[in-house]
């Protein structure tokens, strides 16, 4: 009788334990990701109220941050020429102030003259549209009958007294001056401290890889935003020059002002050109003999903007600065709701800063997360996949 073979030892349950650990880790990670999404959504909804209420504090900080990113390359270039850091920061800020004051002088001075003509222009526009309205007199009669049916006999009209333009400017000026001074001071100190910030990001990290990642993120944010603003400013300056020449050739008053407005409006995507078309249509109709001739300046600017937005800007900026139009509109409406006109001007630079940071930190996969995918690109190994062989050669 042959002896029975020896029983083989039971296989260790290492693989099943690993699968359970990975499954538990993925569930824990998804729970944490869900909490992060909920917190982020709550912050996104609550942030506008906080920023709008505290606009005197938060608006100068946001504007100073954007201006610092834009002016830092100029300050670095001046420092490489041998100027001290403080002096380079002051000169960069003075160049910005000089450009803003020059633009305001070229735009505001003619604009104040045109403001005095607004009542006359409105009367002219009213007469032009009255001529068109006479051709649709039957619509006016229907409107009068509807108004007569809804009117009440003996009703009193209550007119609320509104503050005059001078009173509005007088009340708004102190707040604007305070925010402007705070923005300039914060911008100067941020530009002056840029070198120390870079050194802290490089040498204050626990690992060398983290320092390199922080340095690359800072460099990418600065290069992307500064290059975008400089390139777009040059394109918009060209648009302003062409618009000024067109306004002069079409006989519009103050062509330099129209060129400056076209340049500034072009910094606000979509909304700015639409407002520019409305303004040129208003003043064109108010100064021309007929409605058709009055619409010629608006049509000319619309053609200029179409060529610039669809051919010139994409060819110069390229794919590096291509952004989703939906994200641009969301950022535009979001920051305009918070800070008004200044928020509209800051929306695209802020979106560029956030986009550059997300490119380095990782963009959340919100749509995929809803369908069960990880929130970020880094994920754990799927349960059941074999672990990578990390055994050193020759140790088997």
What do you see in this structure?
The chain is mainly alpha-helical and 396 residues long. The chain has 14 helices and no strands. It has helices at residues 14-53, 55-80, 85-116, 118-134, 137-150, 165-192, 194-203, 208-250, 255-265, 271-287, 291-294, 296-317, 325-361, 366-370. α1 packs across α2 (55-80) and α2 (55-80) crosses α3.
How large is the count of helical segments? 14
The count of strands amounts to 0
Strand content is under 5%
Largest sheet: none
Q: What is the ordering of alpha helices and beta strands?
A: HHHHHHHHHHHHHH
Tally of discrete structural domains: 1
Residue share in helix: over 70%
Span from first to last CA?
38 Å
Give the overall form.
globular
Stretches where pLDDT falls below 50 for ≥5 residues?
152-162, 164-171, 379-396
Mean pLDDT reading: 75
Category from helices, strands and their pairing: mainly alpha
Radius of gyration: 31 Å
